[in-house]
UniProtKB/TrEMBL annotation:
InterPro entries attached to this UniProt entry: Aminotransferase_I/II_large, HTH_trans_reg/aminotransferase, PyrdxlP-dep_Trfase, PyrdxlP-dep_Trfase_major, Tscrpt_reg_HTH_GntR, WH-like_DNA-bd_sf, WH_DNA-bd_sf
Domain of life: Bacteria
Domain HTH gntR-type span(s) in chain numbering: 9-77
Organism: Dyella flava
Protein's name in the database: PLP-dependent aminotransferase family protein
Amino acid sequence: MYLELDGRGPLYDQLTRALKASILDGRIAAGTQLPPTRELADELDLSRTTVLAAYEQLRAEGFIAGRVGSGSYVSDLQARPCNHHAETSIPAPSRYAQRAREVRNWDIPRIHRGLRYNLQYGNPLVNPALNNAWGRELARAANYTRLVVNEVAGLNALRKQTCDYLARRRGVQAEPDDLLIVCGTQQAITLISRVLLEEGDRVVLEEPHYFGAHQALVAHGVELVAIRTDEQGILCSELPEQSPRLIYVTPSHQFPTGSILSLQRRKELLRYAEQHQCWIVEDDYDGEFSYESQPMPALRSLDHGDRVIYVGTFSKVMFGGLRLAYMVLPAALRVDFRNAKYLGDMSCPVIEQSALAHFMEDGGFERHLRLSRKELKSRREALIAGLKEHARDRVEIADTPAGMHLVVWLPGYDQTRCDALIAYAHDQGLGLYPMAPLYLHAPPRPGLMLGYCSLSVTEIREAMQLFGQCLDHFQAR
Ligand SMILES: Cc1ncc(COP(=O)(O)O)c(C=O)c1O
């Protein structure tokens, strides 16, 4: 397909314009099937993400129809009532919107439905007792809560309960005034970008890392520096000499490898932040789920320079759809973060906050936490036992007795074979997910991330048996 890119602006924009021009002047006729994204990307020497983004834009504007995967066809523009010139000359969206469009097209682990056993990370632990208790709390909160727009920082009762919880469980000493209740870690990262980062600022993150943070930071337009991790967490000796503005880490349970940042590295990291005058974001997403010992206190509890922005979420301890999380903010940042939160959405929904505060105060939250921890521990044990029995030495388990997922490496596999294994397992009804999309650079070895939260012990045993059969199939080839 002959297409000339005009060299103006982002590549996906150039490609969108070139395709539109060809469609409008009839060189690509209505009803023509556009080449598959991979093929066009190879032909034009572009990334597939760029082509996906261009197709998505053309689809949004009605130039093409059909879905990625099942073919994209040029629409019959004559049949459309509006004028194309007006459409092509609408002002371009902001650079943020363009970058956001690109990151939303990344090949990150997506939820697959209809699989017999889905080891998708992020699926919730189903607990009918929680559903009942939560229903009662919501009904109660709807009756007893003042239904007005709440304080920007969040409901005082919830901030107070969260402070007690943080002191008890995570060793973090904070006052309600230090807290900002936000709609998920995702919003915390967006607010952090807005308040602390300019486009082009340098930000350090772990390699591999949490895709949600990665996406939000790229959409903001920062320059990312990915620092390798090992079994003691981020390799502080590899932190850049040129000062970053911010370092984003998951010290309690490195996402996704599971390592716990050692005490020595914690001190090194804090010293580095002090010397380089940068902020640290501590994402403590599942620090509560430690199965064999007391979890290590949060990095924030060692921070005497007030440089650590601690982010905790209720997505893991409760459920992701709740969309409530909290930030413990250094004193110097409180006002700016409250302002950004106010301008974004004024405050989080009040009934959910009120229900959660009462659930915590009443002891229901702690009971639920104890039960979840017990249940997750036995699921994790079943997964490891199943791997040892059925996968044997064909996988290497990255074993940390914590969290809701596990990483296994596949010795002797390259990425192509790993992808083929995933596709084959998928056809057998087993959802496996690759580690590769969680790296900024090429991953050093192929691996899988196995989320065990939403399968029962029996299902996990069956899933591991099937996993063993999938590995057999690949061994036999
Ligand atoms: C590393 C990490 N941080 C945070 C979260 C939770 O994000 P949120 O609070 O936006 O649901 C997750 C969950 O998937 C995670 O894996």
